[in-house]
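Make up an example, fold above all:
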Amino acid sequence: MIEDLYPALAALREAGPVHRIAGTDGRPAWLVTRYDDVRRAFADPRLSLDKRHAAPGNYSGFSLPPALDTNLLNMDPPDHTRVRRLVVKAFTSGRVEKLREPVRRVAGELLDAIEADGRADLLATYAGQLPIIVICDLLGVPEGDRRDFRAWSDALITPDPARPQGAKEAVGAMLRFYTGLIAKKRAEPGDDLLSDLIRVRDDETEGGADRLSEDELTSLAFLILLAGYENTVHLIANSVLSLLDHPELLHELREDPARIPAAFDELARYEAPAPLAIRRFPREDIEIGGVTIPAGETVLLSVASAHRDPARFQDPDALNPHIGRSGHLALGHGIHYCLGAPLARMETDIALATLLSRFPGLRLEVPREELRWRPTIRARGLISLPVTW
C-alpha cells in the first residue's frame, strides 16, 4: 500500500467513510477516509488524544517514558490549553521571523557543498539537513550534539525489524540527551527557545500555578525537535519530487519564486508529510460517517485520503496551485493545529526557492519508478531522492 498509497485510499474512500483496519501498532483501529468527516473529527472534543482514554488492550503505540511522553500530542484541554499557552510565549512569530536570513544562508551553504558534484541524494544532503540545523539553532542545541538525531528519529518512525531493540535504545539515548541539554541550559541560558521554555518552567512569575512541570518541559523539547525535523524534511523533499514530476510548474516557480509561498498549500495537500493524524480515542460511543465507533477504540484520521477526496477538491489527483484550493489538513486543524506551522512554511519556501534558483537544470537521476517510499504509514517520506543538475 505504501508505494500505491493513493489508489488504495481511493478504493477505501469509495467503499465507505470508515473502515476497520490494522492500526500503526498492529492492533485494530478505525480509519476515517473522507474529507468532511476527517476535518470534523479533528475538532471533535469527544475524540481524545490522551492515551488514558484508550480501552484496555486496545492500543500500544510508542513506549515512551513520562519525561518524553507528556507532550501536546497526548493532551486534551485543560492541560493542552495550559501548556500550549505557555509555549506560545516562547515560540513567537518574531523569533521565527528572525530565522529567515539564517535559513536562507544555511540553504545556500548546503547547496555550495554539493554544487560541484553535479549530482546528489537531495534527501541526505539538503532536505534532511536543513530542518535539523534550523530547529537545533532555534532550540539552542550545540552542533556537536546533532549528529545522532536523525538515526534516533528513524528508529522511532521506521523501526528496523532486524533490530527490535533499536527503538528502545533510541528512546533511552534521547532521554539522556534532552535531560542533559536542559541541565546545561539551566546552568548557562542562551538566546534560544529552550532557554525561554526553561525560564517559563522555573520562573513562578511566568506561569504561576500553571507553569510547566519538569516532564512537560522535557517532553516539549522532544516534540519540538522531532516534529520540527521529521515533518519539514518530508515537506521539502516531497515538494521537490512533486515539482520534478510537473516540470511546467517547476519552471513557473523558478521564473517567479514569489509564487512559491502561494504554492505551498497545494504542494502540502498533494503529498502531505503525514498520511495519518495522531491517533484519537472516543470518550464515548460516537458516530462518524454513519458508523458507530465504541468508546476507547483507536481512530485514525486519513489526511492523505481526505486530501484526494473529489467531494472536496476538484480534480484532486492533479497538482494545480492555480485553482486556489484551500482547506488542506497537512498541518492539522482546530486546537491541535501545528504550533510550528509558520516555521515549516518558511523553511519549505526558502528551501525550494534557493534550490530552483541555484540548480536550474535539476532533474531526477533515476527513473521515477525506482524511487521508494519509507515503509511506514506514520510518515510519507522518500528513502532517497537522487538528482542531477
